[in-house]
Amino acid sequence: MANELEDEVAGQEKKLVLARFDETDAWDIGQRLVDRAQALDAPVVIDIRTPSRTLFHAALPGSAPDNDMWARRKSNVVFHFHRSSYAIELEHRRKGRTIGPELGLNLTDYADHGGSFPVRIHHVGVVAAITVSGLASKDDHGLIVDVLTAFVKEQG
Question: What's domain 2-155's architecture?
């Protein structure tokens, strides 16, 4: 079962690749995530960032300051591994390990919990991370995948 889920997430990462990505796209994706989260009455933080700056950030009702910290830590996993934080969570769970000193990573800066997804551009690579924090790992991840799937289809 775990391997099937890992394969599914790897397929999402392979399929959800953008032709381009800029600040306008970050705003569009972020607003779509806000709309979707509000429709679900989800108490989440939504964060879209590059390694050096924040492009979009929203804290919805019911979210907590801790969600901001989790968003930062999960996005750092994306930038380190160039994989979704959910993929890393599933891999680590299967291998019986977690983020920590044995991987050379500090727990205050990294969290291997689902909810951050790489923004990958064709022929470029990972340029940003889209992160949702406030729900269960799989639900944070699923919210992003649903919105990003529609965005990629529209981008052509």
Answer: 2-Layer Sandwich (3.30)
